[in-house]
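hey so u asked for the seq, here:
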Amino acid sequence: MNAIIQCQQLAKRFGSKTVLQQLSFELHQGDVAALIGPNGAGKTTLFSILCGYLPPDSGSARIFGHKAGSSALFGKVAALPQDAQFDPAFSIGEQLDFYGRLQGLSSKAAREESKRVLALVELTEQLQHKAGALSHGMRKRAAIAQAFIGTPQLVLLDEPTAGLDPVNALHIRQLISRLSGEVSFMISSHNIFELEQLCNKVLYLENGQLKQHSSSDNAAQLQYLTLHLEQDNNDAISAALRQLPGLIDLHSAQRRELVLSYNPQHNADFDLAVLQCLAANGWRYRNLTKGQTLEQKLFNPA
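ran it, structure tokens below
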């Protein structure tokens, strides 16, 4: 499968500070990748290099086979910076029309495109409204609409739902999910729940280094159960569960939470065996869910 994004030994420094250190990863067609890391990890710098705003000091970043920032990528790559703003003195429609014309659309085609992308974020009625008259959430959604002008094949989103109320945040997640079959996304966010709903690939940056690069497609033989108990975990519970056929590992993620990894080829009904073990010993539980949360994958690896 051809890579949409291909970074090899990417590095960037600002003065004496190294911001990115030897980053190498690939993103493929249809991927929705989560870019995660603490403040100052290098996420915005990586986005800036991929958009062509900044050159790397060493290494390479190629998108659709072209150097990041190449004119050959015009119209193929779109981005939403975290603090994207509209001019408050002009209408949303006028500004989206302008972005459309920058992509080579006629005035008429640009206006139709503005209407289309505003409909995607449910802002059709705000076409003629000045940006300064809109709420923060509406301006944020209009900025997201800008990223979908034309037919981008790759969209980079930096904190796309920050500042949105729960209903509109859900709508944006649904929009990304709906378009992910035809558009690839890289999303930077501190919202672990949001990324877990959307992403099939995780890039975890820390101090400019790629600490984890994982895909949900790699778990064919190893599966997980997350068990939330009504009581604190104790040695007796762990000991009993460790006797179950198929168990590979068990660890306590939190005081009343256990994560069990197992091989379904050795015990296809492992989840049922866990429930039977709990019932036989009178141990109460709140829920048993398949898989790990993204938070567990990143910060509590089995």
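The first strand starts at residue 3 and ends at 14. The chain has two domains: 3-211, 223-299.
lmk if thats what u needed
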